Every structure is written in structure tokens, then in C-alpha cells.
Amino acid sequence: MTLLLRVKKQDASKTKKFLIDNNLLNNDFRVKKEEEHILFPINEEFELNELSFEASFTEGEAEKSKLLEIPKLEDELKKILSVKEMEVVSKSQDVIGDIAIIEIPDALISKEKEIAKIFLKCNPSIVTVLKKGKHEGVFRLQKLDYLVGEDKKETIHVENKARLFLNVEDVYFSPRMANERLRISKLVKKGEEVLVMFSGAGPYPLVIAKNSEAKKIDGVEINPKGKEFGDVSIKKNKINNVFLYTGDVYEVIPKLVSEGKKYDRVVMPAPHNANSFLKTALGALKKKGFIHFYDFVHEDEFEKRVDELILEAKSNGRKAKLLGIYKVGQNKPRMYRTCIDLEILE
Predict the structure, then answer these.
(1) What digits encode the pLDDT tens for the residues 164-222?
(2) CATH architecture of 70-152
(3) N or C: which end of the chain has fewer CB within 10 A?
């Protein structure tokens, strides 16, 4: 069954534009026509009051789109690359909204445009291909060079019922963390107050807001562009329980605490030097709460890392109990981005 949006025929053109602009149209299926209505296949539900006309959601059978009849990436790459070049070319891509970010090895720079055109050809949902750079600086940003397609870096990324508005070069964002963000949101209990450190353009706060009954979610991000795009997403998603703050967590969070703000749950999604921020996170918790601590850890040192965190909590007058360790990414053999879930007591 396919999720569909039913609108009157006279509103079809406005509907299509809205769905495309907000990355909600499901291109895997064809539009259905009824006597008086048009049914658009969509990726997920949204607030119908965003439309200025009558519409409703339904489910039904939909015919597969001809867009699915697309060539395979590897087959197309073989047409322009030698056997040796095929061994070094990266076939992976980060898709953020309708933008694909690909890695080009130094040995293939002379063919980067041709390679990018193939990625564009083999993925009908993207309109732009950019070349991946290295994450650098305090904001962990990367310079992304334009390769082919529409020359742009702003997009709308749909994830777990939330629409995220961002510039892929101005803010750090990883689409690979989508399942992890949803996992965290499912742990949030009704009425909880949540703090997200290093909140970027707001993916964690927005996904938590859309998939839980949290009372309030605060996010703190040092990059002012993060708050700028996050505030746009809050408005566009019609969310009223997310509040974003710009500044260093060392300065902003103690100020929030001094104003009487304490949290049931703290999310720490920056895996670099995260340990130095644990004391700040502990100080923001209520007498009982939870911390989701992200770090790059070798698989042989999981137990050691947990012991270090429990000891650090103890040195700050808190008792920590391990709830679970989750592998949420990998940056080299046996070295994983992990989330360590802790329950914190006084």
C-alpha cells in the first residue's frame, strides 16, 4: 500500500509544486486520477493546514513509476572506467534532500564530471551532485565543490516526519544518523524535557519533537547558521516545543541551568572530544535522568570506555548505570561511532 494525498483536480498544480518544494513527492509511484480528484504518492504525512485548500491522506495501490527503470550505477561506471579505476572509485553517496555528495579519489579527478553525471543519471531523486571535502574547523564543515546538475547547496531533507531546511556547506549534517535519531526519539517519554548539545541545524530536536510527546526540547549549537536554518525548520514544521540557542555549550548551558532549566535527558551527538563536555551535561540533568553519549571507540575498548564514563560521573557526584552500547557508524576497521546510553542518579 502507498501513502497518498487526495486533492481536487483544480488544486493539482498547486499541490504538485508544494510537494516538490518540500521534498514530499514520492517519485517511485505514478500520480492517480479519479473523476474529481488527483491522488499524489507522498513520502510521509505532514500538517494539512500548510495547504490553503481541501486535502486528505489515504492509502491505496499505486502504479510503479517509469523512473524506476533506471540503469545500475556500477554498469554505467564500467562504461567509462577501466578495471583498475573501478577498484578505486567510490560507489557510495550521501544524499541530503535532492543533493548527492560523492567522493572522488585523486586518481579519478580527470573524470570527476563524467562520474558525477552517472550518479545523477542513476538516481532520479537528486538534481545536484557535489564533491565531498574534509570536515574542518570548530563547526566541522566541509568545502563542497559543484560538479553537475543544478548549481545549489540549499535543500530540504525529509527524515522521520521532519523536514529539515539547510545548506549542506554551511552546517554539519549526516543523513546516515537518521535511524539513530529515531531510536533516541522513541526513548523519550511523555512530558520529558530534553537537551541536545551540538544541535547543528536541529535534526535531533526536530525528529524528537515529531516522534515523541516531549514537553520541551532545547538545542545548543555554536554555529549561528545552525540556529538560523533550525529556526526555519521549526517554523515550517509548525513545531512549538523546540528552542534553539547559539553559543558555546560551556557558556550557554550553565546560563540555562542558572535560569532554572533542568532536563530529563541530554543528547550529546558530537563524537569528537565528547568526554570534555560530560561534566556540563551532568550539571544540566535533573536528580534522575539519561545521557546519550557519542564517541568513536575501538570495539576492544567498549567496556573500558563505559568504566571511564561511570568514574567521571562519580567524580561529579553522580551515579551512572549503563543501559546499552550501540554502533551507529564506522570510520575505520573496528573503530565505531557509538552511542552509550546511561541512566544517571544522584
Answers:
(1) 999 999 999 999 999 999 999 999 999 999 999 999 999 999 999 999 999 999 999 99
(2) 2-Layer Sandwich (3.30)
(3) N
pLDDT digit string (tens) for 288-326? Answer: 999 999 999 999 999 999 999 999 999 999 999 999 999
pTM: 0.84
Coil, strand or helix at 195: strand
Cell of 102: 560523492
CA dihedral (293, 296, 300, 303) in degrees, to 10, reads: -10
Q: How big is the CA angle at 196 (ends 195 and 197), to the nearest 5 degrees?
A: 115
What is the Cα–Cα distance from 235 to 227, expressed in whole angstroms?
Answer: 12
Directed axis angle between helix 203-211 and helix 224-236, to 10°?
20
In this predicted model, what pLDDT tens digit does every residue of 237-255 receive, in sequence order? 999 999 999 999 999 999 9
Would you kindly state where each structural domain of the chain is located, as residue ranges?
2-65, 70-152, 167-345
User: Cα(226)–Cα(105) distance, rounded to whole angstroms?
Assistant: 30
**Alpha-carbon gap, residue 104 to 198, rounded angstroms:** 29
Q: Are 130 and 99 in contact (CB under 8 A)?
A: yes
Write the CATH number of the domain with boundaries 167-345. 3.40.50.150
pLDDT digits (tens, 9 = 90+) for 196-210: 999 999 999 999 999
- Give the Cα-Cα-Cα angle 176, 179, 181 (nearest 5 degrees): 95
Closest to 183 in 3D by CA, of 214, 216, 156, 207: 207
Q: What's CA 55's distance to the chain center, in Å?
A: 28
Strand partners, 197: 220
What does the DSSP 8-state code read for residue 85?
A: H
Output the 3-class SS for 125-143.
CCCEEEECCCCECCCCECC
Query: Three cell numbers at 272?
Result: 569528537
Bridge partners of residue 7, in order along the sequence: 38, 55
- CATH topology for 2-65? Alpha-Beta Plaits (3.30.70)
Provide the 3-class DSSP secondary structure of residue 43: coil
Residue 142 corresponds to which cell in the numbers above? 566541509
